[in-house]
Task: inverse folding
């Protein structure tokens, strides 16, 4: 993990020698999203609660970012999987 803020996390993921910056943005007042190297790749309206899962691709690999948020608006857990294999978890 590169950076940690309120309802925000920044990660560096390396695949096949190439590094990618993945960011989770959960402070959108009803809209949350994930960026890949600064471009939005997944997201949507989060009513009545936060979106639990975001799916996108990098180099033909399926990436799934799962987020759980506590009732007091703090990130409870984040898990990143690459082609079904867990590569990061808190």
Result:
């Amino acid at each position: 993990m590169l950076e940690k803020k309120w309802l925000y996390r920044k990660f560096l993921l390396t695949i096949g020698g190439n590094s990618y910056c993945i960011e989770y943005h959960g402070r959108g007042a009803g809209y949350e999203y994930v960026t890949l190297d600064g471009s939005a790749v997944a997201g949507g309206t989060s009513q009545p609660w936060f979106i639990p899962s975001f799916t996108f691709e990098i180099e033909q690999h399926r990436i799934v970012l799962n987020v759980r948020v506590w009732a007091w608006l703090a990130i409870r857990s984040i898990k990143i999987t690459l082609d079904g294999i867990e590569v990061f978890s808190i």
